[in-house]
Inverse folding.
């Protein structure tokens, strides 16, 4: 299972790098917390309209209001790629 999580993490990291977002590589968590450079609530609501769900960072603290939580623990590699491609298309 650990190898599967590492593969999913690596997929997520690849897409986050393409997006140019600031983030820390997850070492023990099954999520990343990138800075999307805008209001996290608005971003998450817009992404729902594009078929991607994530959690706004603002409830984690005011310093996290431009961050989102993207979980890779409960998805397949194909679903993760599909979701990250949608995010990439939305942001380009």
């Amino acid at each position: 299972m650990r190898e599967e999580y590492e593969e999913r993490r690596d997929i997520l990291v690849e897409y986050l790098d393409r997006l140019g977002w600031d983030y820390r590589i997850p070492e023990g968590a099954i999520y990343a917390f990138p800075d999307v450079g805008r209001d996290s609530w608005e971003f998450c609501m817009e992404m729902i309209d594009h078929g991607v769900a994530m959690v706004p960072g603002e409830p984690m603290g005011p310093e996290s209001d431009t961050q989102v939580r993207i979980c890779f623990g409960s998805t397949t590699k194909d679903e993760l790629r599909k979701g990250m491609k949608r995010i990439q298309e939305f942001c380009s």
Strands lie at 31-32, 55-56, 68-71. Helices lie at 2-19, 40-49, 77-91. The chain is about 45% helix and 10% strand.
